[in-house]
Amino acid sequence: MLKPLPRFYMKNDPMVSIIIPTYNRGHMIGDAIKSALHQTYPNKQVIVVDDDSNDNTRSVVECFPEVKYVCQSHGRQAAARNNGWKHSSGKYIATLDSDDRWEPEFLKTCVAFLEKENLDFVFANWHQQRLEGDTYDFLSNDPLLKTYLKKVRNDSWVVLESHDLRDLYIKGCPSPSSSLVIRASTLGGWNEKMNIGDDWCMLLDMIMPGKCRAAFTLEKLWWKHINCNNVYDGRYHIEVNRLLYVEDTRTLMERFAKVWTEKEYKYVEKKYLKHLVRSAKHSLFIYSNPVESIRLMKRAVTTNPFYAVRVFTRLFLDAGKRQLIKQPSNVAEI
What we know:
Blueprint: E1 16-22, H1 29-37, E2 44-50, H2 57-61, E3 68-71, H3 76-86, E4 92-95, E5 101-102, H4 106-117, E6 121-129, E7 135-137, E8 157-160, H5 162-171, E9 180-183, H6 198-207, E10 214-224, H7 237-256, H8 262-285, H9 290-303, H10 305-324
Parallel strand pairs: 1-2, 1-4, 2-3, 6-10
Antiparallel strand pairs: 4-9, 5-10, 6-7, 6-9, 8-10
């Protein structure tokens, strides 16, 4: 029997290191690994970092001998990405969440544009799964990108200069892990203090010095799946509010306080205070924990008393009215 021909690649195809962090996803990580191995882009290495799973993750990964398996003590997703980065050797880094999957052309399309435009990172549009099971085009409907969609080129790409990136990523992060391909030489690592927004912090570290250039494509090149243990989509809105919009945002404010302009800092601070007061509201009306509610309100008032009182008045009085007239409130809107 003839042996299969090896997969050759040209010398000008730079290596891409694919990092797949995972925790207790033995039932789905096989699809993620297959989507990485089946990329039409040939020069790649696949590294799975197991965050101390207690299911059959290891045995599933061992079915793919071409994949490097790394196991670590439980340290969450940012630590797993950093561990995979230490074992990588590629010119570019791509991180694929173990519950997502790429289209076969994902790497080829992204690396080609990175090389052509000499960019620091790119991110690609995706099929976003709804709880009902159907999917939709995410980036075309992302309000953060509304201004930049006017700049779409004929090839579906939008190039973002350093000032664009600074303005965009101060407001939020439109590029989840599985959407990104990053130039390794500009990567500084993932902040392990972050609960959810480790990619957001990592990209701000690249963007804030002012020399970063990037791009995104509206071509849908991957699939984002929803399940009960997603870091973001798998949590209740109340928990995301506390972990991402309060705790992670506070970490960002402390980290970038000296490099953000006063206008930038005030913008982020107002969003932080709004979600901080909202968490105080959740503690009181959802969890019946007045002590925690008072603690959070004290933090808000200490940060910016005038704005905190304004937000408090709007959110708490609205909730109080709903309680008095005994109307059910939508937890996702609290």
